[in-house]
Amino acid sequence: TGLPIFETKNSLQQFSYFLKARSVLLVFKLHHLQAELPVFQTHFDNILLVRDKDLLDMGVQLYQFISMADAMISDYSSISIDFMLKDKPIIFTLDDYQEYEKSRGLFPKNAIDYMKGYHVYNQKELEESISEIIDGADKYKEERHAVLKDYHKFTDGNSARRVMDAVELL
């Protein structure tokens, strides 16, 4: 599949069954390099596969799209840093952390310490994390708040105004 956690189509199908049993829809934004893989031509009942073209056709930008999410599942993508502004739970898939760190590197060197959310290494841990979140838990909220200032100087929603002031458009 090219995905963390899920190595086969069957594992994705089993995950879809889990989601269906919990009445959860996972909206999965495919990376453009994975979008045309045969496994993603399959229908999964409770996994909605979204491609860049789908967002384009709907006239929706990626950040508009993620702002509607109740939680995020991510690997090492910087989008999780931006999602922190939504103050919602994040699950980090880290099953290939050691390999990724060696092959591509991570910044900062102790990047895992800044990933404030669930750290999952297999499908069972992912399902347990999702279950906690849909049951109302947000046990990493305070930890996210503690590192938010390391990533975002301003969190007041007035960044566009500051940009306009900076270029003297107001």
Rg, alpha carbons:
17 Å
Number of DSSP E strands: 5
Strand order of the largest sheet: 3-4-5
- Give the structural class: alpha/beta
Mean pLDDT: 91
Q: Count of helices?
A: 8
| pLDDT < 50 runs, ≥5 residues | none
Global outline: globular
Give the percentage of residues in beta strands. 5-15%
Order of helices and strands: HEEHHEHEHEHHH
Euclidean distance between termini CA atoms: 49 Å
The main β sheet shows up as: 3 strands, parallel
- The helix content is 40-55%
Brief summary of the model shown:
The protein has eight helices and five strands, in the order H-E-E-H-H-E-H-E-H-E-H-H-H. It has 170 residues and is α/β, with parallel strands linked by helices.
Write a concise keyword list for the protein shown above.
170 residues; alpha/beta; three-stranded parallel sheet; two-stranded parallel ribbon
Describe it for me?
This protein has 170 residues and is an alpha/beta fold. The chain has 8 helices and 5 strands; from the N terminus they run αββααβαβαβααα. It has a 3-stranded parallel sheet.
